[in-house]
Amino acid sequence: MIVTTTKGDMDDSQLEKREGTVDNDNEYTTWVEYWLDGALVHRSAHVTLKKMPVFGGGETASF
Amino acid sequence: MANTQSMATSFLGELMLGQHQLGTSTIVSRGSLTSPTTDTVKAALYLASATVNASTTAYSATGEVSGTGYTAGGVTVTNATAPTSTNSSSTAGVGYWTPSASITYTTVTLSTAFDCVLIYNSTQSNKAISVHTFGSQTITAGTFTLTMPSNTTTTALLRLATT
Q1: Distance from CA of B94 to the nearest CA of A (A)
Q2: How do beta strands B158-162 and A54-58 pair?
Q3: DSSP summary character for residue B145
């Protein structure tokens, strides 16, 4: 697979791949990094928010 | 039958559609009252060190991320589904809206940590709509994607509710 990096497009076989996730009440996030000779050359992240703000409490007044 | 005091749930959805004007308001013309255009909604990313919150009234470049591949102001939000509303009871309901596609920043390098996206109306003087936070991220020659939740009364990105 070709990966866009700071060194240009590279085949992922040339790179060290690291992946991770964050899963908590607020979000589910996955990230992927590619390293070359100890340097980070690509990092992408995908965030899915779980907790949306609700703008609530609208009321009508009684006469 | 009995009458029940409540705010009309349809009003909540209609607010997001700009169908009520209860005071003098300055807005950018939508071209036609009978065939109005849809405002353009955009999404800008902000540094973890920025201060963007409920007091934010409009998009500002102050504290916004910068880097290769990122254009100030962010990206246009895909908005193919109009706001709508649903009653949950005789006294309560929800008006809600969600962008119809993920918000994606493609092939960017954002080296300083960011943790916030501001959704704003770029047609109407960049007026702020909502602020959403997440864990700090950096991106290196990569893609940052915010996947949208399901557009339902309980999960939509933007919900105006009466209880």
Answers
A1: 9
A2: parallel
A3: E
Cβ–Cβ of B107/A29 closer than 8 Å? no
* DSSP percent split of chain B into helix, strand, coil, nearest 5: 5, 40, 55
Cross-chain Cβ contact B160/A45 below 8 Å:
no
- With beta carbons less than 8 A apart as the criterion, state whether A18 and A40 touch: no
Chain A hits for B143, CB-CB cut-off 8 Å, are 44, 46
Per-block average pLDDT, block size 10, for chain B (163 residues)?
71 81 75 80 95 91 97 96 89 90 97 95 90 94 95 90 83
Predicted-complex ipTM score: 0.89
Cβ-defined contact of A29 to B134 (cutoff 8 Å)? yes
Number of residues assigned to chain A: 63
Residue A37 · residue A47 · CB < 8 Å: no
Q: CB contact, 8 Å: B161 with chain A?
A: yes
